[in-house]
Amino acid sequence: MTSLKASTLGAIHKKKLSDGKLFALIEPQASQKCPPNNEIEKDSSRKHMPKYKLEYLWLDGYQPVPNLRGKTKIVSEAPQSVEDCEMWGFDGSSTQQAEGSSSDCMLKPVALYPDAARENGFIVMCEVMMPDGSAHPSNARASIADDEGAWFGLEQEYFLYQDGRPLGWPEEGYPNPQGEYYTGVGYANVGDIAREIVEQHLELCLEAGINHEGINAEVAQGQWEFQVCAPRLRTFIKFCTLFFRSSHDGLMLTRSILQWGDLKP
C-alpha cells in the first residue's frame, strides 16, 4: 500500500476489507476543506469584475506644432460624466512641458467620449495644469471664455501615407494631375485602402459621439477631409488659427483616432 503522510493530507484511517486488504480513508485538514458555494461565487465575481480603460489625451509643449500624448488609466467603475474622471499626472520633462528637476504636470479632464476601439474603453480629453492648479503655459484652451450661443465648424485636411509617400502615388514621379480626385469615387481616383481607412475612422468617431458633418476625398490623390461642428465659443489657438473648445476637443479626438494605429490598411 502506498505510504501517505497525515501531516500533509490530514488524518488517515485504515480499514480492512473482506479479502484482507487494507484501504485508507483520508480526512482532509480543516484548511483543505472546500469553501461554501457562496464564498466561491464571491471569489469568482471578484476575479471577473470588469475593468475600464480611460485613455487620457493632451497636447504637449512642442513648438510650433504640439503633439498629441496619451496614457491609459484603469478604473473599476465606468465614468458617467467627465466629473467622474480624476485628475492625473505625468512627467512633463519628457513632453517639453517641465524641467527635469521639477517635472510634475497635472491632467485635468474636460471632455469624455466612449472609445469604440476598446472594450470597456473611454477617451478623456484633458488640459495640462501646474501642480498648484493653475493652467500650464502650453494650455491655451483654459484662457478663453465660454459662449453657449455660438456654433463653429472646423475642417481637417490630411494625407494618408504609405512607404514615405502619399497613398496611391507611384514609386517614382507623380500621379495624374488634380481634377478627378476631389470628391472622387471609385478605385481609380481614391483606391480601396484609403476608402476603408476613412470609413473606419468615421464609424469610430460617430460611435464616440463626435458631431461629424461629413467626409470627402480632396484635390490630391491620398488626401482626405472631414468636418466637425459643435456649439460654444471655447477657443484654442493652434497652427496660428483660432479653434473652439468643444469643436477643438472633437477635432483633437478625431486626429488621435487616426494616429493611434487603430485604422490599418
List the helices and strands and how they pair.
Layout: H1 6-9, E1 11-16, E2 22-27, H2 37-47, E3 52-59, E4 68-75, E5 88-91, E6 104-114, E7 121-129, E8 151-159, E9 161-162, E10 165-166, H3 187-190, H4 193-207, E11 212-217, E12 223-231, E13 235-238, E14 241-244, H5 245-259
Parallel strand pairs: 3-7
Antiparallel strand pairs: 1-2, 3-4, 5-6, 6-7, 8-12, 9-10, 11-12, 13-14
Question: Can you describe what's shown?
Answer:
This protein is α+β, with helices and mostly antiparallel strands and 265 residues long. The protein has 3 domains: 6-47, no CATH class; 52-143, Ubiquitin-like (UB roll) (Roll), CATH 3.10.20.70; 151-259, 2-Layer Sandwich (Creatine Kinase, Chain A, domain 2), CATH 3.30.590. The chain contains 5 helices and 14 strands. The chain has helices at 6-9, 37-47, 187-190, 193-207, 245-259, and strands at 11-16, 22-27, 52-59, 68-75, 88-91, 104-114, 121-129, 151-159, 161-162, 165-166, 212-217, 223-231, 235-238, 241-244. The strands form 5 sheets. It has a 5-stranded mixed beta sheet, with helices on one face. A 3-stranded antiparallel beta sheet has the order 8-12-11. A hairpin with a 2-residue loop joins strand 13 (235-238) and strand 14. The chain is globular. The termini are far apart. The model is unreliable at 1-17, 23-28, 233-248 and 261-265 (pLDDT under 50).
